[in-house]
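so my prof wants the structure for this chain in the tokens format not the other one, which i didnt know existed until like an hour ago. anyway here's the sequence
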Amino acid sequence: MHPRTNTDRLHPVFCTIVPPHVLDKLSHSGDARLADPARRTLEADGLRRNRRRLTALAAAPVTPTAGAVPTKPHRTLYDCENGTSLPGTKVRDEGDKPTADASVNRAYAGLGATFELLLSAYGRSSIDGKGLPLSGSVHYGNEYNNAFFDGEQMVFGDGDGEIFLDFTVAIDVIAHELAHGLTQYTANLRYEGQSGALNESVSDVFGALVKQHSLGQSAEQADWLIGAGLLAPRVSGDALRSMKAPGTAYDDDVLGKDPQPASMEEYVETEEDNGGVHINSGIPNRAFYLLATALGGNAWERAGQIWFDVLTGGELTATADFAEFARLTVAAAGDRFGERGEKEAVLKAWSEVGVPTAE
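here's what i got, hopefully its the right format
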């Protein structure tokens, strides 16, 4: 593999777990209890997204750090107290005992579980490989219906209680957002079109892997849902997304039907959501699910290792499309496992979702 060049200058992006199209649908509800929080969330996200674009223009080049690489996380949690000023009031530091606030404790545990998977499975110290401290803020905004990574830290809303619950309840949501930081420090995938959908999919993959790793689940035992437990009881659905069966996570009279495609035959052409980054991510998501279940055992050991190798290997371009990513996973499987069943399983998984792997 050639040296990484994409991170000479980082392009941090504002990434949310709930797609804009979901919030837009809610904002048009005739029920103010649903529409008002969604509108406020969309407005807050728009402001944060613009702020992130401005600060990204001044992003400093990445420089190596000296000294030993930490093997333990350094977590700091803050409470926004339903305001929008970040990071908020510090409420828990690394090594502190649990607080009386369950949101703080869940976020602390989720950050730790993500650090643990990266270190134990892939030998990587935090998302930057150098032990980057992990920060999170809870109770952001008033009935804020989202969680996001802004290029520097994690932020969690409480949800409106009608459609979404507290965004710290799902460990894969925490890991998903933090994995955007992993991508930022490695392949630095542009957040638009197919490269943006890959960015989202990589976060879903590592979100699922952190969840499975923390629960000790095999690929067969896992539910392959992203955000299970996040939807309020009134919602007809299981989660935000399904990696096993994209397009089936929810079908609700208020939220509508999950729009994710499961193959290239259903690929969605749209200018919304940066070219459908949250929608078309269903295609590489399903490819990963097919690979992981075909290989069996723990998904982070072989399927996850192949994805990690591509993300960190230095050959994936920042504007990669699905086909480029697929070709590199085939090559990575061959490099790490040789001409064994892993490479054939990768080829079959991409074939099933209609993504070509030949030059």
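also thought this was worth mentioning. The two ends are 18 Å apart (CA to CA).
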